[in-house]
Design a protein that fits this description.
The chain is an alpha/beta fold. The longest helix is centred in the N-terminal third of the chain and has 17 residues. It starts with a helix and ends with a strand.
Length: 198
């Protein structure tokens, strides 16, 4: 017996979430069927608002309110250092440590030869322009310790070293093959403080 079409569509959408396979998506969908109508309408309203009220900053690439990006405010941030991450979520993880007060830049994607993903030259040019404009003296590369993250880090080091002599990475308190969003604040804070030259 097949699921009703509406339920099948919901399951397919839920499977797009990271770590959610078919069985988990089915469990979520059947759980949501039990919700009160007002809870489902509330979820629907919030999802409709996301593209209207949550935007990506044209400069740093992080998510922001429609008004302005707080992370690009030179009066409130230390422009002498820029942290390069692979996801806006990583910025929120780093900010929770209250250790880093510099600028950020979110990459659109990481180098992945197997998936034929490369770093856009326009994005590298944008990073270089921000370094020059802000007179940035240090680049902190805070990418996940994976094959893609390491390859991207090496690529960025080669590209940015001619205009910024101090390039560092997170210290080895961050385990190999780990994602920043799953690392506790204390470990991440120590990795930021004890960052190493790269």
């Amino acid at each position: 017996m097949d699921f009703p079409n509406s339920l099948k569509k919901l399951i397919q959408i839920l499977k797009k979430l990271p770590g959610v396979g078919t069985k988990t998506a089915e469990r979520f969908a059947f759980h949501m069927i039990e919700w009160e109508d007002n809870e489902l309408f509330l979820l629907s309203d919030h999802l409709k608002e996301l593209p209207l009220k949550v935007e990506r900053c044209d400069s740093c690439g992080c998510i922001k309110n429609p008004e302005a990006c707080q992370l690009c405010d030179i009066d409130k941030r230390d422009a002498s250092i820029m942290c390069i991450v692979s996801s806006p979520k990583d910025i929120f993880s780093i900010e929770q440590t209250s250790t880093f007060r510099g600028m950020y830049h979110v990459l659109n994607n990481l180098l992945s030869p197997f998936e034929k993903k490369s770093i856009d030259h326009c994005e590298v040019a944008k990073i270089k322009k921000r370094i020059t404009t802000n007179k940035t003296q240090e680049i902190l590369i805070a990418l996940d310790s994976t094959i893609e993250g390491d390859a991207t880090s090496l690529f960025l080091k080669q590209e940015l070293e001619p205009i910024c002599s101090k390039i560092s990475r997170l210290a080895f308190g961050v385990p190999l093959n780990s994602s920043l969003e799953y690392i506790d604040e204390g470990t991440l804070a120590r990795a930021l403080i004890n960052r190493q030259s790269f």
